[in-house]
Design brief:
Number of strands: 6
Shape: globular
CATH class of the largest domain: Alpha Beta
Strand content: 15-25%
Number of domains: 2
Number of helices: 6
Structural class: alpha/beta
Strand order of the largest sheet: 1-2-3-6
Helix content: 25-40%
CATH topology of the largest domain: 2-enoyl-CoA Hydratase, Chain A, domain 1
């Protein structure tokens, strides 16, 4: 929203959560096709201040086939930094993926082409550990010892609670992922 910075929205949301003494939080990224993965940082900061929410059975992230690109990076961060339970379908993107799309138009056909220009690996470094030339080549998409193409993170991310919606769910307005969380 252009009228409200995400950081301000998150602060307002957590003020409301605190005032109402909310005991469970559900974050739905099923239809998040990406963007800039850095914007979600205020959410992690506020969650870190509330250990009563960041514990098993109190924090849920709904994922699905529309969870893609930077949203997948956010899912990886939720897995790494929180105790969230993941519910839903397997996301369309794997944790190690390509992104940062550049577009151009073919001169004769005028067809627009979108091309990923950067590899986003999930490999993390220990505090103070730097990257050497081989690491940077791995980040850019060339295989390297630390970033081989078959590295952990290249397989699909599977939710803790797998929920497959049906056409009947869609037609009747039923949300089986939300139902699975509320049934816990």
């Amino acid at each position: 929203m252009e009228s409200l910075a995400f950081r301000d929205l998150v602060v307002e949301m957590f003020d409301l959560i605190d005032a109402r003494e909310v005991s469970r939080l559900i974050i739905d990224v099923r239809h998040n096709g990406g963007g800039d993965s850095e914007h979600v940082e205020p959410l992690f900061e506020e969650l870190a201040r509330r250990p009563s929410l960041d514990r098993e059975g109190h924090l849920f992230v709904i994922v699905g086939r529309g969870t893609y690109s930077s949203a997948m990076q956010n899912v990886v961060e939720f897995e790494r930094r929180t105790r969230a339970i993941f519910v839903g379908e397997t996301p369309s993107s794997v944790p190690n993926h390509y992104g940062q799309v550049a577009s151009f138009v073919l001169p004769n056909s005028r067809i627009r082409v979108d091309v990923s220009t950067k590899r986003f690996p999930v490999t993390r470094f220990a505090d103070g550990e730097g990257m050497d030339l081989g690491d940077w080549l791995g980040v850019l998409g060339y295989s390297s010892p630390r970033f081989p193409f078959d590295a952990v993170g290249s397989e699909p991310f599977e939710p803790d609670v797998r929920v497959q919606p049906t056409i009947t769910d869609t037609l009747t307005g039923r949300d089986p992922a939300l139902d699975a969380i509320l049934d816990r």
